[in-house]
Predict the 3D structure of the following.
Amino acid sequence: MPVKTLRQELRDAILSRIAKKQDPLEGFYCDEMTRESILAVLVAGRHLLLEGPPGIGKTTVAKIIAALLPPMETVADCRYNCLPAKPACPDCVGKKKIRKITVPGAQRFIRIQGSPEMMPEDLMGDLDPVLAMKLGIQDPRAYTPGKIQKAHRKIVFIDELNRVPQRTQNTLVQVLEEGITTIAGFDLDSEVDTLVVATENPEDYAGAERVSETLSDRFEQIRIGYPAFEQEVEILERYGRRIEGVKASDAVLRQSVAITNAARMLPDELDRLPSVRASLSIFEQAQSLARLKNAKQVTAAHVEAAARRVLEGRLAVSSESRYSEKQDALVEKIIDAARKF
Ligand SMILES: Nc1ncnc2c1ncn2[C@@H]1O[C@H](COP(=O)(O)OP(=O)(O)OP(=O)(O)O)[C@@H](O)[C@H]1O
Ligand SMILES: [Mg+2]
Ligand SMILES: [Zn+2]
């Protein structure tokens, strides 16, 4: 049987779930349009660039996508994820015996955190000076694979691609286009069968570059926004930590979400809006406060006290706002507005 590429595996996984009327992105909350766009990109086998503010589920969806993949068989101690039937990398060549291992779908995921210090070698690997001395610089075994080679047959998740220097971004182009990396100085092409899910925060702060045009042309861009109110309540219910010994009712979930949603209605006053992560934090800290006061039940006052702390640390009041010197007053206005939700 011919071996399926990662894209074929992903497409089959998505389509078989759709055929069974299951949601392939179960656990990620967004509107129908966004869901359909993401699935269409993946079924077409294209690379995905998710754009949106922090804390709205971009990493979550990337992990859910990777977990769709079936388990893969590969070779033990092979950093290039060779097929057991065709071991061809520097790690496998010369091995007398190949030991097969199975990697679960959820682990077919390599994460790269974009940063201004990221060098092409971080992605593409480099010569190991010690091994090069020992084996000679022409020996492929002296080469340490980078994240990209390790991503063979896995999904690569690049967080904050826009913070990666353009020179490093450009080294990705060949991989995205041809699925091959040329290992510099060696007569060795390494196959990289991967699909990239990257994120970009378009309203990003200082230090960010843009994703270069050559690179962004190779991605399908999808904008992700804040989830709807009811969805955000479900996110808190599903992912919010519960603290033992104290009860948090449905009203507590809703009030936590109402407060961040009230803040998001003031984009003119705020340079940075509170994310879903902020709602989660309010929900969890409201429970801690109640617990510290030995209360059996989280009350509205606990939620508001937690919200004051969480918002104080996260809101960036715009310098043009009437509240620019009065953050406390703005926080009270937000909490008050949430009471009327
Ligand atoms: N749309 C969503 N669907 C499901 N969970 C979400 C969603 N948005 C946020 N969350 C929850 O909020 C937390 C933060 O989400 P996540 O880390 O995926 O955000 P992110 O967009 O990757 O943030 P950042 O840009 O800071 O990396 C997680 O616990 C996640 O479960
Ligand atoms: Mg993230
Ligand atoms: Zn190998």
Notes: Residues 6-223 form a domain with the Rossmann fold fold (CATH 3.40.50.300). Residues 293 and 302 are 10 Å apart (CA to CA). The longest helix spans residues 276-292.
